[in-house]
Amino acid sequence: ANGYYGAGVLSQSAYEYFRNRPVGTIDNLQLNLCYMDSKADYDFASGVRCKDLPSGGKWVYYTMNLEKVSHLTLNSTGAMAEVWIASDGTPSVNLGSELCQMGVVGSASGIICKMVSYSFQETKTLTTSLDFRMVIDTTLLGFSPSSSDVKYSGDGASWTNFGSTSTYNKVFKPSGEYINVFLSTAIYKKSQKS
User: The organism sits in which domain of life (predicted)?
Assistant: First the structure.
């Protein structure tokens, strides 16, 4: 059947190829298109190429330059293993913890953990419309936390509520190392009750 729209899709092996390419490299790809007459029936699986059809098809190609401008690697730190919860829901941190510490964000006290370590390389700004958001499985948690209960930060200074989005370049920086997550004392007490 003939269609009106077309879309290109990259295979898993193509994603792996680009993942392993260094930031700043440029790959040239040729995109082949076959425009068909509405009455033509082209069976691409037969092995006949569009450009070799005697009639009904018009073959065009475009050369595309794909530049890898950034690469982000995320790794879990396992920071929650350093947090202890008392029977009344009060959290504490192992003495000498390198990943978590007691802290205050806004007016709420709780624990700040370096939850995810990352490496970010960038040769130019990718886009300003790529958003980052923290998601919580509220079904598993048993309740929906308030916005002051959970926050995330790329620098440990400016915080975003877990339900809100932030552009990627406000969270990930080439000089950064961690995504910090703040969990209020209140969320631990609420989770103890649920």
Answer: Bacteria
Q: Is the pLDDT of residue 2 over 60?
A: no
Q: Residue 1's closest CA among 36, 33, 31, 52? A: 36
| Residue 127 in domain | yes
Q: What is the pTM of this model?
A: 0.76
Compute the chain's Rg from CA coordinates: 25
- Is there a contact between 58 and 48 (Cβ–Cβ < 8 Å)? no
98: tokens are 């390198």
Q: What would the 3-class secondary structure string for the chain be?
A: CCCCCCCCCCCHHHHHHHHCCCCCCEEEEEEEEEEECCCCCCCHHHCCCHHHCCCCEEEEEEEEEEECCEEEEEEECCHHHHEEECCCCCEEECCCCCCEEEEEECCEEEEEEEEEEEEEEECCCCCCCCEEECCCCHHHHCCCCCCCCEEEECCCCCCEECCCEEEHHHHCCCCCCEEEEEEEHHHHHHHHHC
- In the structure encoding, which two tokens stand for residue 188, read together? 């631990």
Instruction: Report the share of the chain in percent with pLDDT over 70.
Output: 96
Residue 179, domain extent: 71-193
